[in-house]
């Protein structure tokens, strides 16, 4: 029987392990931390019994993942729950733009900009089932649906600020800008539309669900599936030398490129080593978890029912803040994402105390304290929020990296998602998962299709590894 070692137990490492085990490979997963999950973990950071997601929180691409959806993970406890409102984007004065899973309801709420939203986002949502498999894979491949992919690509290459000109009202422009800001990149740069378009279309096609009980249940379900297939996981088992991996037929690394290069050291071909050295990490997140009494007193009505709330004001404000962050400057009013997962999953709350998940975009490696700037953005759109806070837990960029070594400098995407690197990560290659070391593959979010709890990077890397094993 062939053997494999997978280093790292994030959703990609576990997905790679499951796919290998399903094809008869004896798999051993080594995790440096005391618990599995990587970006898919949950805990009680504020008060006992109040459950918060440690990083990833809403999972449209996991719910749409061609790999995860075929594993029967519901048999191992994974259950998706949807908020009534997928996303709200409040503006000053109680105005807001609302993204419902129902496309017609969304376009109606956008008024005169509704038809233009339908023409762009609606078309992508209608094509979503066809094109999801195309963009959830490497750049260099033979497309199965070339016309649909070409339509998507023609829109996706534009800067988000250019795309936003399709709409005249502040509401639609701000709604799209906030979604595109998930790229952690200046919105005036090419390809930032792609992130906004994928996430907006996914909200209509599959919604933005949460995992019942917390994001940690995604990792737990994958681990249970791996156990069914005979695979094993060891925690508190850091790998510090490539010699520890010798003897395995296959090695898959759920690591950032820099960590992979350090581990493989002189074994890497010069071209791969150079590409990994050039790999860029992006801006950081600054995370604050709140335990609050009752609900956030949003001025905008639908924000009170939304799983996700984007705070940043108008398109122009968001674009300015993201440009500052990219230049290494901390904006006075950063872009902030707020998660109200408990609205879909009340099991996360305790005795009227609700968990609020939030993070602000800050410069890479930001050493300061963004708690006040983040809190002020919530208070701006929900006066009285501060009075409801009962406990907080803060995790800045350094703490995020300590919690998950792939988050270099607080970059929760495991690499900048701007420019060519959005499409060709960690390097431009026919097989971006191959390290050039025989039998060793990179399977982290630094490989296509990039960030998200979809497991597709692990699955694609495992496919590549099995192909090499068959040819050996």
UniProtKB/TrEMBL annotation:
InterPro entries: FAD/NAD-bd_sf. It holds the Pfam family NAD_binding_8. This is FAD-dependent oxidoreductase. The lineage of its organism: Bacteria, Bacillati, Actinomycetota, Actinomycetes, Micrococcales.
């Amino acid at each position: 029987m062939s053997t494999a070692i997978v280093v790292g137990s994030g959703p990609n490492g576990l997905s790679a392990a499951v796919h290998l085990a399903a094809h008869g490979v004896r798999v051993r997963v080594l995790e440096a931390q005391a618990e599995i999950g990587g970006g898919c973990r949950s805990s009680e950071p504020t008060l006992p019994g109040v459950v918060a997601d440690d990083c990833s929180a809403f999972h449209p691409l996991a719910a749409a993942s061609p790999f995860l959806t075929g594993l029967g993970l519901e048999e191992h406890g994974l259950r998706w729950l949807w908020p009534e409102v997928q996303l709200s984007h409040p503006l000053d004065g109680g105005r807001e733009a609302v993204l419902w899973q129902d496309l017609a309801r969304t376009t109606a709420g956008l008024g005169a900009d509704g038809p233009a939203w339908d023409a762009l986002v609606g078309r992508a949502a209608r094509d979503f089932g066809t094109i999801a498999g195309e963009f959830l894979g490497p750049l260099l491949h033979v497309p199965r649906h070339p016309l649909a992919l070409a339509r998507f690509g023609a829109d996706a290459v534009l800067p988000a600020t250019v795309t936003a000109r399709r709409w005249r009202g502040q509401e639609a422009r701000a709604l799209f800008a906030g979604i595109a800001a998930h790229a952690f990149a200046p919105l005036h740069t090419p390809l930032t539309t792609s992130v906004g378009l994928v996430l907006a279309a996914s909200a209509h096609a599959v919604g933005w669900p949460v995992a019942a009980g917390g994001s940690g249940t995604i990792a737990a379900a994958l681990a249970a599936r791996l156990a069914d297939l005979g695979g094993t996981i060891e925690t508190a088992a850091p790998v510090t030398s490539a010699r520890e991996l010798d003897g395995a037929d296959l090695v898959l690394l759920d690591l950032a490129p820099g960590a992979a290069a350090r581990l493989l050291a002189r074994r890497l071909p010069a071209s791969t080593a150079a590409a990994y050295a050039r790999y860029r990490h992006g801006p950081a997140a600054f995370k604050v978890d709140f335990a609050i009494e009752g609900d956030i007193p949003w001025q905008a009505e639908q924000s009170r029912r939304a799983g996700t709330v984007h705070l940043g004001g108008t398109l122009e404000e968001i674009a300015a803040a993201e440009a500052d962050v990219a230049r290494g400057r901390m904006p006075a009013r950063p872009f902030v994402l707020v998660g109200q997962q408990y609205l879909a999953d009340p099991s996360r709350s305790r005795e009227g105390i609700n968990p609020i998940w939030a993070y602000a975009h800050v410069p890479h490696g930001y050493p300061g304290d963004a708690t006040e700037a983040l809190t002020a953005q919530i208070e701006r759109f929900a006066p009285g929020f501060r009075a409801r806070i009962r406990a907080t837990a803060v995790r800045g960029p350094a703490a995020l990296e300590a919690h998950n070594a792939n988050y270099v400098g607080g970059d929760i995407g495991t690499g900048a998602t701007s420019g060519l690197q959005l499409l060709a990560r960690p390097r431009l290659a026919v097989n971006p998962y191959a390290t050039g070391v025989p039998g060793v593959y990179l399977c982290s979010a630094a490989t296509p299709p990039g960030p998200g709890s979809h497991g597709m990077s692990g699955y694609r890397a495992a496919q590549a590894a099995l192909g090499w094993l068959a040819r050996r």
